[in-house]
Write a structure and sequence with these properties.
The structure is a single chain. The protein is mainly alpha-helical. The protein contains eleven helices and six strands. It folds into three domains: about 80 residues, Winged helix-like DNA-binding domain superfamily/Winged helix DNA-binding domain (Arc Repressor Mutant, subunit A); about 40 residues, no CATH class; about 90 residues, no CATH class. The chain is about 50% helix and about 10% strand. α3 crosses α4 and α6 crosses α7. It is globular and about 55 Å long.
Length: about 260
Amino acid sequence: MEEIPKYTTIIHKVRIKLDLTCNEYCVADIIYHLSNNPSAKVSGWCYASKETIGNYMGLAKKNIHLIINKLIEKNIIIKDEQTRWLKTTSLWYENVIIEKMKFNNEESLPIVTKGYYGQERKVTPHSNESLHNNNIYNNINNSIVTTEKNYTDQDEQLTNLLYEKVKENYSFLIDNKTDNQKIDDYEEMNRINRIDKKDYKLIKAVILWCQQDSFWRKNIRSVQKLRKQFDNLMIRVYEKKKEENGSSIAVIRPPR
């Protein structure tokens, strides 16, 4: 029998961002660790049965089956149709594993000095002040390595467009996002294009339409909600334009 992890550390900020329940998060974590177990007979895949995972989770086989289907729908795991084996996707790695690596590396960092409005101040990794958003920690020599940002100018522009339209519709809403939160939004917009394979022209068209619709503008007020409902919005835009024009639309195409 494969060795199942004895516990799972849940990063609730990431869990909420990925729209996962605690059980879904734990099952995905088990699948990740089993598929990356160096002593496994088959490298890169989790081939544990649903009964085995269910026994460790204290859940019935049918519940594990439902959770796995949900994780597949959310692009957290993928399944090989022939073997039925499972593994987590880059979405899990980018959000959960990288976050764990950052946290573990922060544990070993010394106090570092950074410039702060012209002054030199001592900042620890666990203080309320954060280091530059594009820095990650190197656990080998405790140095700070600057990495490229994980979003493009188009991601930033489309995110700002969405929030400008939301502000036009609801001027009383307070914009109190921190720089880190804004970067999270830019990166989420990037995932709509990079992971979900939605063209930037399509994203812009959907943003403009949903912020004019009396129902959807109340429900789409963040990039996270936009991504979650994107396919539904795309279908609504297509059907609406088809009703108005009586023909196909160049930018919005029907789902295949």
